[in-house]
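Trying the structure run again after the queue cleared.
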Amino acid sequence: MRSILITLLVATLFNGCSQPHQVEDPASIVAQIEQQRSAKNISFKQMPGSPIPDEHLTGFQGLDYFPVNLNYRFRLSVHRYDNPETFKMITSSGAQRETRRYGYFDFKIDGQPCRLNVYQMPSTREKYPNLLFVPFVDGTSGRSTYGGGRYIDLKTNESGVYDLDFNYAYNPSCAYGKPGYSCPIPPSENRLAVAIRAGEKAYPLAGH
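Done. Tokens:
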């Protein structure tokens, strides 16, 4: 699943209340997010196999993001499914990825209840055994953000409590216009009516 694994090379994972999590040191959290974004820009500019089209690399100045907003950072307990189901998640190429429903998060944005399912994909478990995958579409999709949705990665922990931080929401590799990627499409159960104005914006040169 190259669309996920490329971003995992530079992603900073947080261990993941219905209210924004009030961090003890907001300045430190903001600095970590900014550092992760800078590292990702460098990686996309320099690494072999970058999802940025070759013809864009010379002039590539970095990805576009919403300003960091800690109101989109939530400390949540994951609600585990008693009998997790496995299904096929459709990808942008029409292929299907075996996917397991791990659990779900409930939270509120602007007073509106939201639910996002959390998944595990066997295709990533050998290299990233603790990866949890949260793909979603929201009210910004197709406007200020990529129409195919965005992703958040988490790392399993024993407590079952996670920081679901939309400032880390990132685009699938398909979002940049380079052919050859097969990116999971967020299922309908992970489509939010609210606008998540946090994380990565659309790549303007993709031509979508």
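Residues 78 and 105 are 5 Å apart (CA to CA). Worth checking whether this holds up in the mutant runs.
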